[in-house]
Amino acid sequence: MDDAGKRExxxxxxxxxxxxxxxxxxxxxxxxxxxxxxxxxxxxxIALGETTADIRTALKNDFQVDPNSGADQRAxxxxxxxxxxxxxxxxEKETELHAESKVLGMPRNxxxxxxxxxxxxxxxxxxxxxxxxxxxxEYLAMKVEECENGEILASSLDEITSKTHKNTSSLQTSLDTxxxxxxxxxxxxxxxxxxxxxxxxxxxxxxxTWMCMAAKFKSKHWLSDLKADHFQRxxxxxxGDRVNAIKVPYDNQHVAIKPNWALVLQYEHRLRRExxxxxxxxxxxxxxxxxxxxxxxxxxxxxxxxxxxxxxAETPVKYQKTSQKGNxxxxxxxxxxxxxxxxxxxxxxxxxxxxxxxxxHGDLSLVAQTPDGRDIxxxxxxxxxxxxxxxxxxxxxxxxFGDHAxxxxxxxxxxxxxxEILGKPLVVTNQQAFGNWKSWPQFDExxxxxxxxxxxxSHPFHVRKLIGKENGKWKTADAAAYPPPLCKWLAQxxxxxxxxxxxxxxxxxxxxxxxLERPVQTQAHHEATAVEExxxxxxxxxxxxxxxxxxxxxxxxxxxxxxxxxRGQKITLEWAGRARELVDGFGLCSPTLWxxxxxxxxxxxxxxxxxxxxxxxxxxxxDKKFADPRREAIKLGLGHFSSxxxxxxxxxxxxxxxxALLPSKDMAMVVPERQPFLLGLVGQxxxxxxxxxxxxxxxxxxxxWNGVPVGYDEPLPRIPAVFPPxxxxxxxxxxxxxxxxxxxxxxxxxxxxxxxxxREEEQLGRMVPTTLGRLxxxxxxxxxxxxxxGAIRKPNGDVRPLHDGTHFVQLNxxxxxxxxxxxxxxxxxxxxxxxxxxxxxxxxxxxxxxASAHRLVKIRRRDWPLLGCKARSExxxxxxNCVGTFGxxxxxxxWSRLFSGIGRLAAYIMQQxxxxxxxxxxxxxxxxxxxxxxxxxxxxxxxxxxxxxxxSYKKFSxxxxxxxxxxxxxxxxxxxxxxxxxxxxxxxxxxxMRKAGGTVLLRRFNEFVGRLGFVARxxxxxxxxxxxxxxxxxxxxxxxxxxxxxxxxxxxxFLSEQLHDCTxxxxxxxxxxxxxxxxxxxxxxxxxxxxxxxxxxxxGAWFSVELRxxxxxxxxxxxxxxxxxxxxxxxxxxxxxxxxxxxVGGPVKHVTTPIKxxxxxxxxxxxxxxxxxxxTRWPLCLVYMQMTKALMDSRLMVQLNWRPRDxxxxxxxxxxxxFSGVDIQKRxxxxxxxxxxxxxxxxxxxxxxxxxxxxxxxxxxxxxxGDYEKSGW
Length: 1273
Hints:
InterPro entries: Hepadnavirus_pol/RT (IPR052055). About 40% of the residues lie in helices and about 10% in strands.
């Protein structure tokens, strides 16, 4: 037999792992073939002998390979011995891992050599497999385990993963028989196919997987004839005209209908399940089973044709309105109490069952699972979900499964569906020329509809009422009721517009509009033009009702434009158990919210070319300017520069070169008065780059060029592409109106300094002096407002004026925000440190300060009278602010909007360079990575300087450890925290308060609490312990002196110990995620007793403990009532579970990266508590503080997931002392006295004085504050 025949014989008869061992040890093909006549599996081959001597003997006697016959024979013997040794080790390790996984109930761990052996065998038949066609190790391991167990399963399509799938490895734990916690890595699911191509890819992966199994398990007869062609034919059946492209006979022709994709996937999964059942029962091989199920008419009727017919016939109705008052059209929820019955709606409170198909979603028919059997998230459909539930976020309405919530299902009917089909803005047109519609809608005096819609539609293939009622419901129809000519016209319009951009559709026609009587042209292109002209005329006719361009610039901007320039999704971060999108301070459309490779990916070719030209110009300049950019950057970071390293001549030359690339180079070089920026340069560049907010810089009456409004007469504009909507507004203090307010004492004592400061501002064009008479003459329609002034002394001796725009003049009270400003917090800075550490690139960070940020925005002249002040109350001279003023609430809005555009400008020019930036008002933080980090840093600073940014160079700091808005960022060690000086201030304050016997001035105590809250945003475990401090400070007047109750003193002592033992920093490293729920708990509160229960979901260990008032008095009132403390009891059950299941309670751990575990509870309040991290409710705060301390000592984080009661039935049964659902041998008996609740008892014993608010107020003394200044920090 020739070599090809030998190879074919080996591939067909020898298991893949044995082939791999032979090939890896370089056993000759001839000897492999001879071995294959007798040894066809690894298990049998390693039984060839017990020792290497036995192997040599067998080779000599059975295969005539004698090591004494020469070097060739000796080498062949060595190769076989090597193969035998490697095979033996591999098999022993495989057996050990397999046995361990069986005992622990864990997924099988596939060794690298096993996987390589299978893939090599498959590649011999199919050729080299790319990564996206190569199954992941986890999925191969799962299928190997199924084959070994003799029961194969049809995986859902989201479980079929390849090597290219994002690494979502997490940790899961279990308790072994000895009570030890074992931690192993696990893989989460992928995503279901969204289209036919993704489905083909998934089934191709499935085919490769099962061919790997066929290569490994040669002894499995049901795999013997398997080929890739079996799966290919199965795919063609699913996607062909029998299923996905099914056609039905109608009017002597076959009409294609489009079944719901979810239904297709449901049927596909059912067929694979049935095929695998045939294999498990021994009735067919896998290849034959895949063919048989596609020919089974009963399966098709039950799982495809019948559901298809029913789904097509269903028409869900809108939500049912109730008679309840208020704006909410849903029935109000009424929460059940304790274990009692729930009234009206199910799903909340004890005793509720969540298996109803109808309920709070009115008459809609709801389902709990997707067609392929995955659980649907109830929270997403009801009130919203944070995305961490692990369930599918689709609509629960039967037959829908859209990407919207069930509560919004009705919005996705009718006109919105038309918009989604078109994929373009809705087009409004006259329907006169398309059939029965002869005029505009007509109504009678009672507003009842008269026409012109006919009673029914005119489609030939169905009859449908269009007006009136049918079965008590309105039948006004949507797109299906269009007359046939209009349907044809819409189809032509769609085809004619295919591929056009949004901006092209929005272009206004040059021709004037013709009236409605104009005949409709036959060509689709002309018809579309007429529609656009109709839109244009409607806009012109309604001009008198539309606000000015300045008012609506943001409203008319599609919010999605903030993403259309960049590829993919924004970066998301996770901190302290919460996940959200990254915030960098430069707006929702900031390029640095995306990964560098995604920034500007969808910019036009012209915009990319302009960016490249500017970047290369600046890069060339920096290369010539700095012989050693690294050395100069380090000098800048050390504060060795007192002024800009760029000369005025250099900046002027670069500006002219940049301006020459823009449409109006003259305007680009103009610096409008009273502000420093080249607004024409910024605005034109942003326009060229496609930025959504370019027009505010130099266009319109209210712009940065001419001056922006204060917001006194009208709301500030809404810019959805840059800022999210304002949802909450903090009420401001009420005061008696006085447009000529007197200054505060702090200002009166610094009057000379204030006047000097005002004159300096006058020289800069920011203020002008005037008199009241002149002010009234110049602005007769304005009431002058002269605000009360305060002043504080800055560390360098200068004075900072404080303009009170709230009290007396009530200016801030009239300003209405529509946008919510977003600034980066420690979470965003920590994410940046973490992200850079994970990239493992060299980094250089720089923090900068922008001088007088709020004073850099020009105010329109009409609003100048609103910004008056005086150096002395008795002065006749009134100083008018012409620019943004510290103390006027809109100043921060306009500065954020102006500088965010400048920051985006820098990001556009830098394109896909690896760098990041954050800005918090006037604090700018930059990080550059890679080999060009120092050059890029200078280019970025140069961009900011070219547009006019006034940096305070003496405040620059940089390196690998820098400060940003008070936080310390350590890029080398991947840490975030506060400086040692600030931490010691907190410790010293606590010590001073202790020495004073707990007596403190409340204003100073509030200063401490505020700074501690600042620290707790980083040292997150401190946050729960602030609850008593907040409670006590809220009871007393800030002007009082009081002695803290002992409970507060205990908390302060604990905080002091924690701050003493820590370094004031916290790791930014990503917690190891345990996404799988490890246990679930419940609590039952009754008169005189509370029962806690919990079960470990992996090991089956469980507990049930009954508590009496003497054991947990904080759960009971005097009469023994405990129902009021149900939330506290539920949280206590979680704490007990953490102890009993071995997660907490041991010695304090010192680890770099914390571990995050997940658990389930049917108490929604506790899920929110863990996310918020703070509660002042008593005694809930006691249990939460005790749990936080235990988690902190064990370096653990816990995530509680709310589960409906029917999903928490086992834990609920344990609280009812029903043990039928658990293994009685796995019960953990609880000795309550041995659980560490020392912190609860300490605080509980001091409750009386703490909870006596009247007593606290009586013991406090009001004092005159006088001149109070905050201490340095």
